């Protein structure tokens, strides 16, 4: 059974201030969805909402898409039906925050639009230009909202930084694995990954 561990009072960055020192307006998820539905924000525009602030995401490069494509093929072929692996879903954290993980793994009986942070057994980020953000600020958000385990794959070196065993102060275990090492999820033991076995090579 999935533990619903959420750190009390998630610490989010306050909305930034405009040049004149006045605070910016914080948007809600519902308002952002309404703007997308009305065509004010294009559907293809990529961003995340953190504490009410819109955070633009970097365009995806060919290297990022190649690694993500191979991971998706592997997961869809190997992960049992009791779990769902969905790429590029919008993960709502609260009324003012959502993230866009490259992959979310969660119990198969849930529908994608229903999942919240505590439902996610494993989140995977495939990182290129966003590597420092994915390993830094975003990890703090994942921990604050109860995501049990996070892997961040560096598309250049094909190393994976693993964050798992979530406790009251964040992830208790953090380590890096090389491309030839086989990773096994702590929360989904039937999910494993060996990047070298997928035929991927570093770009360095």
Automatic annotation (TrEMBL):
One Pfam family here: Uma2
Domain Putative restriction endonuclease: 41-195
Source taxon at top rank: Bacteria
Keywords attached to this entry: Endonuclease, Hydrolase, Nuclease
Species this chain originates from: Mesorhizobium liriopis
Single Gene Ontology MF annotation: endonuclease activity
Name of this protein: Uma2 family endonuclease
This protein's record includes keyword Transcription regulation: no
């Amino acid at each position: 059974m999935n533990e619903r561990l959420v750190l009390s009072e998630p610490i989010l960055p306050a909305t930034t201030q405009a040049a004149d020192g006045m605070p910016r307006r914080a948007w809600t998820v519902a308002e952002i969805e309404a703007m997308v539905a009305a065509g004010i924000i294009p559907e293809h525009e990529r961003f995340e909402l953190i504490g009410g602030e819109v955070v633009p995401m970097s365009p995806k490069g060919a290297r990022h898409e190649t690694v993500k494509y191979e991971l998706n093929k592997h997961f869809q072929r190997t992960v049992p039906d009791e779990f769902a692996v969905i790429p590029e879903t919008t993960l709502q954290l609260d009324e003012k925050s959502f993230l866009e993980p490259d992959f979310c793994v969660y119990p198969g009986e849930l529908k994608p639009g229903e999942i919240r942070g505590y439902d996610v057994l494993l989140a995977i980020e495939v990182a290129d230009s966003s590597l420092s953000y994915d390993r830094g600020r975003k990890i703090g958000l994942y921990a604050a909202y109860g995501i049990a385990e996070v892997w961040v794959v560096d598309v250049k070196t094909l190393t994976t930084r693993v964050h798992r065993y979530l406790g009251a102060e964040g992830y208790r275990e953090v380590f890096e694995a090389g491309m030839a090492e086989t990773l096994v999820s702590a929360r989904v033991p039937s999910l494993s990954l060996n990047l070298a076995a997928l035929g991927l090579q570093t770009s360095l």
